[in-house]
Amino acid sequence: MKTLKITFAVVIGLFSSLASATDLYVRNLGAGGAYATVSAAITAAANGDRIIIQPKTNGSAYVENLTINKSLTFISETTYNKYFIQGSITITPAAGRVVTFHNLSSGNFTIYNVTVNGATTGGRTTLNLYNCYLNNVDAVPANTTTNMSGCTVGGYVYFSHGRITGNHAQSITAYNTSADTVLATDDIEIIGNSADFSIANQQSSYNFKIYNNFTAGLYTYAIKNGSTNEMINNTVYQPNGGDVAPIYISVNEGNTGTLAIMNNAVSFAVAQTTSCIQSNGFVNVTASYNVFTNTYVSEGVTTQNNNIGNANINFDGTYYTVTGMNVNAGNPSVAYTDLDLTRNDAGHYGGSNSWANYWAPDSGAMPQINYLVTPRVILNTSTLNVTGSGFSK
């Protein structure tokens, strides 16, 4: 009799704190001996401390710009309620620095962003954003990792490396102005998000995985040399038309790599192009088991199989649903099986990284899983390695 060995490598960060860490409280007018401003608490804090912020009862903001030059965690004193900081938040980079925000609200002031203000030397800076309401996130300097989950972003998210899961934004772009010099050990992962305009890769330091998102366009402008990249089980819905194809690859910097485009459900209004996929440059593109409401037309060099055009599919950009001929239209391999153990449904609900894993975000003030990876195929002679993470409300 064969047995299955199971090894769980689970990372539940943020549920525990360092034994030596101190909690510092911020309350309106310094009530109960707390600090009256977040800035004062940052000044008093040491690396590893938590700053616990009381949301003001009248919904008003702590009006201050923050510069964070320590490893700190910011959380709300009231479970699930957000504290409001009206001001810019700037992370000063340093090797090993980790800054985490839970339940931060920036309000509707588009000039106030969360920013990492420079490259990290001799190591990496990590920025974690969980269950936040933000304007823009700009974390593109070299050697910066950004992890985001459960956030609503009124504008853009620019990040050079990290894991982006279960967020809503106008656009999400992996981007770097210069290559990392201290490389992270994992890939860029953009999973289970909704983006009004686009999800794109424009960095050349890491492989990227773009899974199970709902967006108006998937774009690739740069790749890591020799990399292996994937755009799998996304829904691309562009009812207004655009000047490029809904899946667009244009890489001209000379790097070579592969890009698998698979199990996506796509509909777009024809404007300046009728192409479903445009591929220009050096990337070796494979397109398979994608389903389009448009007549299937591709431009550029791609290896193609089992793509379907003129499919009857219904898209809802308000409730983020897709129904119709995308069902059971994805890759029939067991490696891409849906959560209900049927054949893969093309689109963001298909496969093991289903949108259902991330949405709707929990509204009952309970901890939430924001990442879970298991092997696509498990043999009875294999060791099962599972990696996951979660955050507390």
Give helix % range.
Answer: under 10%
Q: Which term fits the overall shape?
A: globular
Number of helices: 1
Low-confidence stretches are: 1-18
**Average pLDDT score:** 90
Question: Main β-sheet, in a few words?
Answer: 15 strands, parallel
Structural class: mainly beta
Strand content: 35-45%
How far apart lie the N and C ends? 44 Å
Supply Rg: 22 Å
* DSSP strand tally: 38
Description:
- By secondary structure, the protein is mainly β.
- Helix content is 2%, strand content 42%.
- The strands form six sheets. The protein has a 15-stranded parallel sheet that branches.
- Strand 2, helix 1 (38-44) and strand 3 form a beta-alpha-beta unit.
- The longest helix is centred in the N-terminal third of the chain and has 7 residues, at 38-44.
Q: Can you lay out the helices and strands and say which pair or pack?
A:
Elements: E1 5-8, E2 23-26, H1 38-44, E3 50-53, E4 62-63, E5 66-68, E6 72-76, E7 83-86, E8 89-91, E9 98-102, E10 104-105, E11 114-116, E12 125-130, E13 133-134, E14 137-139, E15 144-149, E16 152-153, E17 156-159, E18 162-165, E19 168-175, E20 188-191, E21 194-202, E22 208-211, E23 214-215, E24 218-220, E25 227-232, E26 235-238, E27 247-251, E28 257-262, E29 265-268, E30 277-281, E31 283-288, E32 291-292, E33 298-300, E34 302-305, E35 313-316, E36 321-324, E37 368-373, E38 383-391
Parallel strand pairs: 1-38, 2-3, 3-6, 4-7, 5-8, 6-9, 7-10, 8-11, 9-12, 11-14, 12-15, 13-16, 14-17, 15-18, 17-19, 18-20, 19-21, 20-22, 21-23, 21-24, 22-25, 23-26, 24-27, 25-28, 26-29, 27-30, 28-31, 29-32, 30-33, 31-34
Antiparallel strand pairs: 35-36, 37-38
